Amino acid sequence: MVKTLQGVKSVLFARKHADAATKEMQLVPYQTSLTFDPSRDSDSTATKDGAVNTSSSIETDLEVEFINNTAAVSDELLQAIFDDELMDMEIVRMDRSNASGEYEAWYMQGHVSEDSNDNDADDNSTRDVSFSVDGTPKHGWTKLTTAQQNDVDYVFRGLDAVTEEDATGGGTAWKDTDNGVAEDPKV
């Protein structure tokens, strides 16, 4: 069966390339749009035997729009354009996974080429960040850490403290089998 893919389920993670050994990629928060546009120019030369085509290297445009925020990764994106910092970027499709529980992903390296910031008086501050992608993006599958998964789709938590031993704070997520359950609470 063919499944349609939803734009809302395609999200961008990023980090400074220099931090690859010490930091996991972070979700760019509050994304409103993500554009991934690989292209290849071609040229045709007419010959007496017919056209002979040549093609150039892959060029990839990557652009993310989001509501401006105070997340560290948002600040790093802005600073990267001033510092000409090499960035790691990964698009993860949360609605396409394999049997191992890994998500479809595109990994890229490149530089922030533009960071446009709009600050209208009657709206949220927004950012539109464009990247110049180096080389050819790599297609594959990736797992998300618990923290990354929680950033994408936070989990239910109870009222207790959230600790390493109890990541849900004493809470239990609702299951479909809970529909209709109505026991009297013990007082």
From TrEMBL:
Skewed-composition ranges (Polar residues): 44-55
Domain of life, source organism: Bacteria
Residue span of region Disordered: 34-55, 114-142, 166-187
A matching Pfam family: Phage_tail_2
Sequence ranges of Basic and acidic residues compositional bias: 175-187
Protein name: Phage major tail protein, TP901-1 family
